[in-house]
Description:
Elements: E1 7-8, H1 19-28, H2 40-53, E2 58-62, H3 65-74, E3 81-86, H4 90-93, H5 98-103, E4 106-110, E5 112-113, E6 116-117, H6 119-125, E7 136-143, H7 154-166, E8 170-175, H8 178-185, H9 189-192, E9 200-204, E10 214-218, H10 227-233, H11 242-252, H12 256-274, E11 282-283, E12 291-295, H13 298-304, E13 308-309, E14 311-314, E15 319-323, H14 330-343
Parallel strand pairs: 1-13, 3-4, 3-7, 7-8, 8-9
Antiparallel strand pairs: 2-10, 5-6, 9-10, 11-12, 12-15, 14-15
Amino acid sequence: MNTDQKINFASENYAGAQPDIMQALADVNKGSVPSYGNDEYTADAIATIKRHFGDDIEVYFTFNGTGANNFGLGAVAARFNSIYCSDVAHLYVDESTALESFTNCRLYPVPSESGKIILSELKNAIKRIGDIHHPQPGVVSITQPTEYGTVYTVDELKAIKALCIENNLLLHADGARYFNAAAHLGLSLKEMTRDAGIDILTLGGTKAGMMFGEAVIFFTRDTSGSRKYNLKRSMQLASKNRFIAAQFTRMLHDDLWLKLAGRTNNLAAEFEKRIANIPGISIAHPVETNAVFLKMSPAIHAKMQQHAYFYYWNDLKEEVRLVFSFDNTLEEIDEFIGLLKNYTK
């Protein structure tokens, strides 16, 4: 048993940088290059991203997910707009009032099922178009995969997109774990985004194994030419941008993203298999990516906290969340389950 430190099933944010990514950082940590993204490493990263997502896109880099969402949504939404999202969406539940403070838009939570927006509820929420007294519908934001690790299929995305087109709305995807969603569906990154009707993607790097950094990809044209100014205004313009960019280049090279996402998805699937038939423990939501949600009593969770980091997610439903990172192992899963069995006898 590992007595030096607890097992981390809390979040990929606990993990360090994946070794290939760390090497990519070291490789660009030499000499002087132009700042603020005017360097060859940033140009190379943008070219690499275009090869995966399509040529007719705009790519910007940010420090973190909240900043990426603020910038991406703030660049397309007017101050009088409303933004619709799941009632458990990260930008609604776990990004404080950042989005509303930065964009001045109204966030409208829409009822969901295992994290996915219920289409009929979204349709009912879009109302009072043209009413000067009411926030005007501007954007629908989905989380892909959802806060419960479930994945919108392409058909589900296209159904939401059809509703957006009908009401002249843009479709944003908050993709902190987008690579895991693509790996689950076995689709290319382009098929998951442009081909499915996504207009703006917040592409996560940190949770995928990077040290830090996200990318914001626009699939719509910037007719005003204002996006680069919004990047600066959102305080996300990195002076040493090469260190974010180089990580994305490496992540997308040789399908490293797919190998890492596939591995963490598989760890979650293995955990689901091995957790079966433990008294008092059950799966709370479908396991589709690298997160597993369990029904577990607060007492058992408190005991397990001596050995492992993982969150008590929903007190009312007695749900806990476990997330698997690139550096987790099957041995850690077996150790965790062995301990859990002892506490549930």
